Amino acid sequence: MGVPKRKTSKMRQRTRRAANRWHAPQLSTCSQCGTRVPGHTACPSCGYYRGRQVLTIEA
Ligand SMILES: [Zn+2]
User: Fold this and answer.
1) CA 55, CA 32: separation in Å to the nearest integer?
2) Based on the structure, what is the number of domains in the chain?
3) Cβ pair 47, 59 in contact under 8 A
4) With 80 as the cut, is the pLDDT of residue 57 above it?
5) CA distances from 19 to 24, 35, 41 (A)
6) What is the distance in A from the centroid of ligand 1 to the CA of 37?
7) Which residue range(s) make up the domain with 51?
8) How does residue 59 score in pLDDT terms, banded at 50, 70 and 90?
């Protein structure tokens, strides 16, 4: 049966778990209206994405 040859070090174990740890989503600034918007997302306040109107915003 396959058995690990070496003991997993604390650093290696922590590095592995750090990859799955939750962190707050990265927010970028909308180039059109300047509000904070998560990446790869159309701006909810002005409806722009990559310098183009993609959503119709009411009111
Ligand atoms: Zn915007």
Assistant:
1) 13
2) 1
3) no
4) no
5) 13, 29, 23
6) 8
7) 25-59
8) low
For residue 9, is it within any domain? no
Q: Give per-residue pLDDT as tens, 19-54.
A: 999 988 889 999 888 899 998 999 998 989 988 888
Query: Is 55 domain-assigned?
Result: yes
| Distance of alpha carbon 45 from alpha carbon 52, whole angstroms | 14
pLDDT at 6 over 80: yes
Distance from the alpha carbon of residue 24 to the mean position of ligand 1, in angstroms = 20
Containing H/E element for 52? strand 52-53
42 Cα to the center of ligand 1, angstroms: 8
Ligand 1 centre to CA of 26 (Å) is 16
